[in-house]
Amino acid sequence: MAYETIIVEVDDDVATITLNRPDALNALNSQLLGELAQALTEADANDKVRCIILTGSAKAFAAGADIKEMSEKSFVEMFLGDFFEPATEAVAKVRKPVIAAVSGYALGGGCELAMMCDFIIASETAKFGQPEINLGVIAGIGGTQRLPRYVGKAKAMDMHLTGRFMDAEEAERSGLVSRVVPVKQLMEEAQSAAAKIAEKSMLASIAAKQAVNRAFETTLDEGLLFERRLFHSLFATEDQKEGMSAFLEKRTPQFRDR
Ligand code: CAA
């Protein structure tokens, strides 16, 4: 499918989706969100793809939901239209690992989109924020729920109530991002992480992703049981036999997702 607001590239086994509305700092309008939902669904269904990278430009990952598009909307239009839903559902449904590679502004819906990914690699210029309070609203695609899970209540409240931005160094210190690299190395770092993930058994990758995500949804006891059952079930796979034999035989495993 031809997209106008995103660019999709599939290289080896990694799909890179680049948000591409440079004139609006990649603000999330309904066209972009629709295209993103479609591209994520296609990448997840593509057997060749083993990991997905979501990125923006050097200046902005995304500066939030599109304020121009939203500004005149009524409650009824927002309620019935819920134009964020297809994309948020699509991100949540992706079974393959998704890395957010963030440079520049990740604000409002941009910060929320990055947090929906499995982990965030940031460039030194990244700035995260939930400045919706400055517009007389609050976060609408998960910011009040996900940010405290990443950085704790104190910083999340601070960001949501004051609208201040968090730079990359603070974001790494606070647990919002997993690594920070110079801006020129951002894509190289994300691609190298994606390539590492792509080498693994997809069965184990999906199980790991589901188990970690479960930690945010359930009690410790239930989460531990869920993890143990997934761990046990992986012993029914050829990839477990291959992975452990390869270790013992001091060779590189050849996983086949079986
Ligand atoms: N929506 C629509 N357009 C946006 C936008 C947004 N969220 N953010 C930036 N733009 C547009 C600007 O209007 C401007 O367009 P024009 O040239 O046509 O005027 C262009 O992008 C460049 O922006 P600036 O001139 O403002 O660039 P800057 O470098 O001076 O400032 C910025 C950058 C600090 C990110 C500033 O653009 C800004 O504050 N943007 C808004 C951030 C924001 O409030 N985000 C939250 C949106 S609401 C939301 O996301 C709700 C939700 O949770 C679902």
From TrEMBL:
InterPro entries: ClpP/crotonase-like_dom_sf (IPR029045), Enoyl-CoA_hyd/isom_CS (IPR018376), Enoyl-CoA_hydra/iso (IPR001753), Enoyl-CoA_hydra_C (IPR014748). Keywords: Fatty acid metabolism, Lipid metabolism, Lyase. GO terms for molecular function: enoyl-CoA hydratase activity. It comes from the Bacteria. Its EC number is 4.2.1.17. It catalyses: a (3S)-3-hydroxyacyl-CoA = a (2E)-enoyl-CoA + H2O; a 4-saturated-(3S)-3-hydroxyacyl-CoA = a (3E)-enoyl-CoA + H2O. This is enoyl-CoA hydratase. It is an enzyme of class 4 (lyase). It holds the Pfam family ECH_1. Could possibly oxidize fatty acids using specific components. GO terms for biological process: fatty acid beta-oxidation. Belongs to the enoyl-CoA hydratase/isomerase family. Gene3D superfamilies: 2-enoyl-CoA Hydratase, Chain A, domain 1, Lyase 2-enoyl-coa Hydratase, Chain A, domain 2.
